[in-house]
């Protein structure tokens, strides 16, 4: 089956095995009928597609389950739990959160998303939840008699600033001890069939943050968005909760985190850049000549920022807690492993705070130098650990050595670079205090050399180098050791291929066929 409007040539797609084009269009029906009548699409192909579609219908009917009644209340409780486990605390200056009656009795809640929460993107995946937690309602509910909560929309229109509403928001915020502002990106730009126009939140929401921050020093921002956004307004708030699209239970989860009934434990699954211009796709997007070139290769996300030695606004894997966690005593199950083994990495994780909390421990690896360009570090394992105040626990993560493989286009296969790998453990991609080394014992694999490869590439393949040294010694009567030293000396400075290097710089009498046979080990 095709994706919606994914078929450009219905007869060709049917011949290629696509039985069902979605959605049905008059153009597809017309071109397919003409192709059948002309013989371009044989009836046997049409019959095959029909048989397979009928078989699918029969299979669906045969395995249809009896109707059951869904437990929507239980499902909603699960949605609240998932949201609470996922929301990321990105900033908490002066420990503004959690809110307490002693410091923040008067709370101003601002922003339209507090009443109309942004919980999902747009397009075919949009759903209408059976239950929906509105953050404002949940804040009122949990505040009880201990807090005084006031509300102002601040920015009722996503497109234009409402000066009267802004003035009301400023007034409400000025009378409070803390302002909690709900903001989002543009609804409709975070869905399918298009790209975001920028990495900003709504302009009216940024204006709301700045206007409120001018009269209220204690600002909490609650952000809803599909992916990373730039945050030129970050200095205007003391605390920042990143919810992403947290679903129908987001409102309750946010309220519980604000009041400390839940300890935030989510971690970023993206890197948050300082500016749009520092993102990996900046030079290639939106392409040229009606084509978009995906030029990042391996260096997508945190891999790009690590390789460029750039400090993002918030790194991949980052997330704060109301607790404090420390890592210690890393230990590997072996110092040398083979490609079919699994390495166990153990360490001690401690909760040094005064609240129960959960930490997502992350394991990254760094590869030794090899033929392929690799990332500085790559996430290979993680786990979430719940710890009581003052509790320490030994934690173990499993690292299958097969997971270290990288696709080698020259060999058309997955390969594991042999040598000394670094294992790093910590709380984010930029906070990895534990480091240990393990030797990975695999047979080196190289792309077969030819006469147009460089001398430097020859030096990296000892067996091929030995054969070439023997060939030169045989033809020149020079000592092999002297020849090897000369090749190693020349290698960094020669850009030309092996045949030119040997014939022009070493005056060797050899043709292309003979050299290629030697390189391949056939002579």
How does this model look, in words?
This protein has helices at residues 10-15, 26-38, 43-62, 72-86, 101-104, 135-143, 163-174, 203-213, 250-258, 302-307, 455-459, 462-476, 480-490, 498-505, 512-519, and strands spanning 88-92, 106-110, 148-152, 178-184, 219-224, 239-242, 325-332, 336-337, 342-351, 357-366, 378-387, 392-400, 406-408, 413-415, 419-426, 434-440. It has 523 residues and is an alpha/beta fold. The protein has four domains: 10-63; 80-266, Rossmann fold; 325-440, Sandwich (Immunoglobulin-like), CATH 2.60.40.10; 455-520, no CATH class. Strand 13 and strand 14 (413-415) form a beta hairpin. The longest helix has 20 residues, at 43-62. The model has no long low-confidence stretch (mean pLDDT 94).
Concise overview:
The protein has 523 residues and is α/β, with parallel strands linked by helices. Helices cover 29% and strands 20% of the residues. It has four domains: 10-63; 80-266, Glycoside hydrolase family 3 C-terminal domain (Rossmann fold); 325-440, Immunoglobulins (Immunoglobulin-like, Sandwich), CATH 2.60.40; 455-520, no CATH class.
Which key phrases capture this entry?
beta-glucosidase activity, GH, alpha/beta, Rossmann fold, Immunoglobulin-like, 5-stranded mixed beta sheet, 6-stranded mixed beta sheet, Beta-D-glucoside glucohydrolase, globular, 523 residues
Give the helix/strand layout.
Layout: H1 10-15, H2 26-38, H3 43-62, H4 72-86, E1 88-92, H5 101-104, E2 106-110, H6 135-143, E3 148-152, H7 163-174, E4 178-184, H8 203-213, E5 219-224, E6 239-242, H9 250-258, H10 302-307, E7 325-332, E8 336-337, E9 342-351, E10 357-366, E11 378-387, E12 392-400, E13 406-408, E14 413-415, E15 419-426, E16 434-440, H11 455-459, H12 462-476, H13 480-490, H14 498-505, H15 512-519
Parallel strand pairs: 2-3, 2-4, 4-5, 5-6, 8-16
Antiparallel strand pairs: 1-6, 7-9, 9-12, 10-11, 10-15, 13-14, 15-16
Helix pairs in contact: 4-9, 6-9
């Amino acid at each position: 089956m095709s994706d919606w409007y994914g078929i450009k040539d219905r007869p060709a797609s049917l011949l290629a095995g696509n039985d069902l084009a979605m959605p049905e269009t008059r153009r597809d029906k017309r071109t397919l009928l003409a192709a059948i009548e002309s013989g371009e699409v044989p009836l046997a192909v049409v019959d095959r597609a029909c048989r397979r579609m009928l078989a699918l219908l029969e299979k669906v009917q045969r395995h249809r389950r009896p109707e059951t009644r869904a437990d929507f209340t239980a499902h909603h409780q699960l949605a609240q739990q998932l949201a609470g486990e996922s929301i990321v605390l990105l900033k908490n200056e002066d420990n503004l959160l959690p809110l307490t009656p002693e410091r923040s009795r008067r709370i101003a809640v601002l922003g339209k998303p507090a009443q109309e929460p942004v919980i999902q993107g747009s397009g075919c995946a949009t759903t209408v939840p059976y239950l929906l937690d509105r953050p404002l309602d949940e804040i009122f509910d949990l505040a009880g008699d201990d807090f005084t909560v006031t509300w102002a929309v601040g920015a009722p229109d996503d497109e234009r600033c409402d000066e009267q509403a802004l003035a009301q928001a400023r007034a409400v915020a000025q009378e409070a001890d803390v302002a909690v502002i709900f903001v989002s990106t543009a609804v409709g730009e975070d869905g399918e069939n298009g790209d975001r126009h920028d990495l900003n939140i709504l302009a009216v929401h940024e204006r709301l943050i700045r206007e409120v921050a001018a009269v209220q020093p204690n600002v909490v921002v609650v952000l809803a968005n599909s992916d990373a956004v730039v945050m030129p307004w970050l200095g205007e708030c003391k605390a920042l909760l990143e919810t992403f699209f947290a679903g129908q239970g987001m409102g309750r989860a946010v309220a519980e985190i604000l009041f400390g009934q839940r300890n935030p434990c989510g971690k970023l699954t993206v890197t948050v850049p300082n500016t749009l211009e520092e993102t990996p796709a900046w030079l290639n997007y939106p392409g040229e000549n009606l084509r978009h070139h995906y030029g990042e290769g391996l260096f997508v996300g945190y891999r790009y920022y690590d390789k460029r030695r750039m400090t993002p606004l918030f790194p991949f894997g980052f997330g704060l807690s109301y607790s404090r966690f420390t890592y210690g005593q890393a230990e590997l199950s072996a110092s040398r492993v083979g490609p079919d083994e699994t390495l166990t990495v153990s360490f001690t994780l401690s909760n040094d705070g005064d609240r129960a909390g959960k930490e997502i421990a992350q394991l990254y690896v760094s590869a030794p130098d090899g033929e392929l360009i690799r990332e500085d570090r790559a996430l290979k394992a993680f786990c979430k650990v719940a710890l009581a105040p003052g509790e320490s626990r030994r934690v173990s993560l499993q690292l299958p050595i097969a997971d270290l493989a990288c696709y080698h286009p020259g060999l058309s296969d997955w390969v594991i670079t042999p040598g000394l790998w670094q294992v790093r453990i910590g709380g984010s991609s930029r906070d990895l205090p534990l480091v240990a080394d393990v030797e990975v014992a695999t047979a080196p694999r190289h792309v077969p050399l030819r006469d147009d490869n460089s001398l430097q590439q020859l030096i990296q393949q000892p067996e091929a180098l030995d054969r070439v040294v023997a060939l030169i010694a045989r033809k020149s009567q020079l000592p092999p050791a002297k020849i090897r030293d000369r090749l190693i000396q020349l290698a960094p400075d020669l850009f030309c291929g092996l045949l030119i290097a040997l014939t022009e710089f070493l005056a060797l009498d050899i043709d292309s066929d003979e050299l290629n046979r030697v390189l391949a080990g056939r002579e």
